[in-house]
Structures
1.
Amino acid sequence: MTNPRQKVVLQIHQHSKSAEDYQGRPGADIFGELVFNDAAQIQYLSKDVYKRLKATTAVGEPLDAGIAQEVAQGMKEWALSHGATHYTHWFIPMTGLAAEKHDTFLEPTPTGRAIAEFDGKTLIKGEPDASSFPSGGTRATFEARGYTAWDPTSPAFIIKEANGATLYIPTAFVSYTEEALDFKTPLLRSMEALSVQALRALRLFGNESAKRVFTTMGPEQEYFLIDRRFYEQRPDLIAAGRTLFGAAPYRGQELEDHYFGSIRERILAFMMDLDRELWRLGIPAKTRHNEVAPAQFEIAPVFEKSSITADHNMLVMEMLRRVALRHGLVCLLHEKPFAGINGNGKHNNWSMATDRGENLLEPGGTPHENAQFLAFLTAVLSAVDKYAELLRVGISGPGNDHRLGANEAPPAIISVFLGEQLDDIVSQLEKGPASSSKQGGTMELGVSVLPPLPKDATDRNRTSPFAFTGNKFEFRAVGSTAPVHFPNTILNTIVAEQLDELATELEKPGDLAPKLAAALQSRIRAHKRVVFNGNGYSEAWHKEAAKRGLPNLRTTPDALHAMSKPEYKALFAKYRVLDHREYEAREEILWERYVKVVAIEALATADIARNQILPAALKHQAQVAGALRAAEGLVREPQNAAAKALGTVVSDLNALDAAVAALGQAQEGADGAATLPLRAEAYRDAVLPAMLAVRSVVDRMEGYVSDELWPLPKYREMLFVY
Ligand code: ADP
Ligand code: MG
């Protein structure tokens, strides 16, 4: 006899999907074919309009409203040529999931036919009903309407389905009082703030040519793939995105044989399709490989401007989900889908570059270039130390709490890895301006010539949450499901402030070299405590970090309490990234989200325990009791094993019943807490442990309840059979 779960195990080898033959169809031919990119714009717009649009997209000049009509026409013609029937403004509301509402181009004509229409006004502004999106109290119901505003810096694209095509127009989502209701608007504002301050600093180093500084970002995205038939039998995965039950498999990741291992045919077929879907959308997907955990994988694109990457990463996550389904797989993006097995992260590679492509975190070849590099590096270092709590806020969330500090992801303590060479240079800078001088036009900082910095992965410290990796920083603690917008908004804003302060100091009268040496010295003295090159997983580091006074905000509620500090609010207001109301709205939404997510998990835990586990265990009890009774009078030996089995299941059933009841009470108590933060803390301190108590009984039962009675696909199946 096999149950539905066991049937899937037996069926999987039959899975076959007719493989696409991509040979003779080079990737380069399709790259960007579904994007209204330069090539499409040149074809569909007049030269003049193209140039004016380009000025907006390339250097961030405000959009020339006069060209909207023609751009809309060109975009429509291009979209129709791809078979599009609909368009949508595409935006990232505070749910963190992209939102879309489709309208057709078709308008009825008086003759009873229809023609495709799309005007400049519709391109520039959309008016979705905003009242059902979280606003954190920014919008009273009487002003429930919000609008979407075209973001011309992010190119429009087309999503093709088997049944048709839709034009997607990336937009910002704001209220009628111009408050940002989305993730995109603050990111764009933070990039603007950083650009202004970075240009001031660059001018001091004699750079007159740069017109704009962009932040650049490349996210390495981790994910799991499991067979869809298993997924459908796991209500916890469906409701919560993570398993709430599951005994540890006898084989986990201890053999360390999955990372960079050869990729199974079924997975490679998925990856081939995925890469091509992404290339068509102009997303430069570059690297694909097996990750550390069984059934875990990674995709990394080439970096782009942060705002483009942020949109692209939303599309990558969307395409991962869609393409997986086509292969009978489900993509799990949650930070911790399986307990005891590595979770998913998103390494946020970050740097700053001028519009001429000069990477400002690339060490230079001359003392002058190095002085500039060290100035920018120090600004980042100071920002990360001063605002470590804010960076922690940016990576907070109920999912990531399971990862941070679980000795697989960097700890919740924010520190910076510089590596030996840079560390040495920083120590020299700390010694100060005594030896700094301006000689023969070059600038000496009292630092011996920069040694070549290693850029290969070999000596990288994977335990550091914020590591310098040769010409960029890698912010490693970002959650895998998170839109990258928010952590990058924070990062850009805190660095903007530090560049502002540095530029202000250096703009004072006097020679640049001694001023710079003094400025760097004082900053390094103040902030070197954040530098840590050792093992971030070690207990010793936790002690050392506490001694250094570095914050250790272990959970999301801890981080959100820190978020309310007035100086943080003031920072975002000062650089016009978030005003007080926008900031407070985000605080509120993050608290709410935490409570809602854990509440759903708690309900799912109780329901699965009651409706699936309890009946299975009762059947098991009946089987054992029946066997015991059937043997009575036939067997002379005492039935120790059967009697023991019966005793175990009876006592665990009682334990399960009690644990489920306790969970219900804990949740009731949490729901009754007076304020949102108190509710969140009760969910953290009472409900999550109560869920774990239920789980521990269930996982124990999984170890002895007859395999054919066990309803939930097991870890050893989901992670190894695909
Ligand atoms: P790895 O970390 O696997 O050794 P790389 O260092 O080449 O690989 O890059 C990892 C990620 O960092 C990629 O997404 C890459 O595009 C991105 N990256 C490289 N340079 C920069 C940069 N200047 N700014 C932002 N991201 C970058
Ligand atoms: Mg990396």
2.
Amino acid sequence: MPNDIPSDTPALRTIPRDQHTISRKDISPNALRVLYRLREGGHEAYLVGGAVRDLLVGGHPKDFDIATGATPEEVKALFRNCRLIGRRFRLAHVVFGREIIEVATFRANSDDGSGDRETHEGGRLLRDNVYGTVEDDAVRRDFTANALYYTVEDFSVRDYVGGFEDVQNRVLKLIGDPETRYREDPVRMLRAVRLAAKLDFSIDPATAAPIRALAPLLSEAAPARLFEECLKLFLSGHGVASFEGLERHGLLPALLPEAAAAMKANRSGALRAVVLEGLRGTDARVANDEPVSPAFLFALLLWPAYCRTLMSLQAQGVPPADAQRRAADRVTVHELQAVALPRRFSVPMQEIWLLQSRFGLRQRKRVMRMLAHPRFRAAFDFLQVRQAGSDEHADDIAFWREARLDPDMAIAHTPAGEGEGENGADAPRRRRRRRRTVGASAV
Ligand code: ATP
Ligand code: MG
């Protein structure tokens, strides 16, 4: 099916080397090697996609993708260090130690990025890919900014879709009719928000307009792909901007339905404040090259849903420990129907939630056990993030800060009576001020 893209060959604009800012020294030497070798082999070859776009705005691309007229087999014949991947649509990976240069043969029709088989069904592309020309390859890409081709033939940039001007104007514009392109692949809606956040681009009004109405289509996207998109949205250093973009374009309820509903129902805005605070912290960690974890991220994103579910279970009279367990399970099952969070992340995510109810403990044995818990660090970081939504946690934070360094000292500093006689993690606490549960404090 046509993408509402004019069937005649799009006009080519060539931007010569002295009119753009891409310099060979900013391109991976391995990518350059592949480009030169392909050309020597008599094939058309370009640097393409995110790398060209990022270089034009002065960024440092993480990966360098190449598009070529050579078939995967022809690519393989040119490189000893090459392996072919993908079943329906084969891609060549040229491997240089830890760096992989992906080389794709020009494709003729749109793809959903999954590399899978494609046919049509209600506007969605599921049809087989076929090889094409560089012009075909340009128009099947998503945004004009992502469809620029850099060549080492004369170091020019080739532009078939007006992408160069759009990059100069810092605007993301879908190629073709936006609604058709979103129906083909709803994940493009997330990509629009994500790339706008990452690059600090605006989204062209015509590209932004259909998103709100089409947002529910996201539920048809492959859950594993949505998980990958979530990681890129929130763990790449622009999580706050991504989150605000998703809200602005009405995508949050489609991506994280229960969390979005819980934030909406939470009049004080405390739950949203916690999520944003956590994302700010995550962005700062990325900026400092510190590690970030999907388990912590999802504990944060789904925290509003967890709190809301927990409160409703407690309101029904379910005892706290039971309610916590059930809320954690319920939220995990419901919310992750759309987004496939692997178990190796969902288990620690739940642990982070469940440990939140134990920060009121002061009994030595329990304090020691908590400190030794493999998820203590993450849970304590999480508690500190929760301060953005409530000032109730200050005492606990002070206690555990000290306990981490010297548990006996921290316990000695605890006013007499506190923490004594507790017979279970979720037993009612002595001090009235502490007589609360995670659910009751809500954030
Ligand atoms: P980044 O790597 O910064 O996240 P990117 O644009 O490089 O952004 P990739 O997922 O690496 O994103 O995709 C590489 C290129 O493939 C894109 O620049 C675009 O040209 C094309 N592409 C990716 N996803 C789609 C899609 N869903 N529909 C059409 N083209 C796509
Ligand atoms: Mg990329």
